[in-house]
Amino acid sequence: MNTPLIQYTLHLADNALILGQRNAAWCGHGPVLEQDIAITNISLDLIGQARNFYQYAAALKNDGSTEDSLAYLRTEREFMNCLLPEMPNGDWGQTILRQFFFSAYQHQLYTRLQSSPDAQLAAIAAKALKEVTYHLRWSSEWVIRLGDGTDESHARMEKAVDALWAYTGELFMPAVYEKIPQAVDPSVLAAAWNEKVSSVFNEATLQLPAQTYMHSGGKTGTHTEEMGFLLTELQYVQRTFPGCEW
Q1: Which of 86, 133, 149, 150 is deepest in the core (most CB within 10 A)?
Q2: CA-CA-CA-CA torsion for 96, 184, 56, 134, nearest 10 degrees?
Q3: Contact yes or no for 71/3 (Cβ under 8 A)
Q4: Strand runs (DSSP E) across 57-180, as ranges?
Q5: End-to-end alpha-carbon separation of the chain, Å?
Q6: How far is CA 42 from CA 1, 48, 131, 224, 235, in A?
């Protein structure tokens, strides 16, 4: 049985893994070589974060679970990532905006998680924060570059905002397992996140959307149809050749 601490640790791991998997699809397809390498390295950073959280979750479960079984052998309803990371890549602008929204959230989250009474979570957050600081700077610069660029790039960013905004609210809706002492209540992150997004959007000449309905459910295992396709690709080799190790 998963305790709230295990659920919280898996939630953190799942967020990083799913976004890392999404970004990995850009490997070899980036708009220019330097940015192809950048998005691939960000993907590797996120998967590294996921590994650290999965390893800790496996130790907490103490039932024979491993980082591999937690990543490759759980079903869609067992994943507790937010909906935003599983959103499709779309074009470069949509991928960039998704990364910016999530990096701005992770930066606030890991900053506070460094003070968790759980020493292992605090240590993972401290290490990951260095990476996320770069992710946030990189994605912010791209949002500004595209938003305040050509008519075409601006229009694509507006389209990306329309596609993704309704999935940002869930980031700040606390699940039960986010209310434990070792966790960070995400609702306290909303103000700083909005301030950062507003600042970057202002430079990018993009408008913040009006209040709208926010999708939710990912934190408790109710995902979009995109998640099934993503896991089919992510888990294919392990499920086809079970028990293999590389």
Answers
A1: 86
A2: 30
A3: no
A4: none
A5: 29
A6: 33, 10, 8, 24, 20
Which two structure tokens, joined as six digits, stand for 86?
Answer: 């599983």
Predicted local distance difference test score (pLDDT) of residue 244: 76
pLDDT of residue 246: 62
Distance CA 94, CA 71 (A): 25
Length of the chain: 246
Q: How far apart are CA 214 and CA 207, in angstroms?
A: 18
CA atoms within 13 A on the CB side of 79: 29
> Dihedrals φ, ψ of 213, to 5°?
-65, 135
What one-letter code names the amino acid at 81? N
CA angle 205, 89, 32 (to 5 degrees): 75
CB atoms within 10 A of CB 129: 16
Choosing among 1.10.3720.10, 1.20.1260.10, 1.10.357.160, 3.30.2290.10, the CATH entry for 4-240 is 1.20.1260.10
- Prediction pTM value: 0.96
Q: What three-state secondary structure class fits 175?
A: coil
Q: CA 26 → CA 33, 132, 140, 153, 235, distances in Å? A: 11, 19, 18, 19, 18
Identity at 103, one-letter amino acid code: S
Domain boundaries, the chain: 4-240
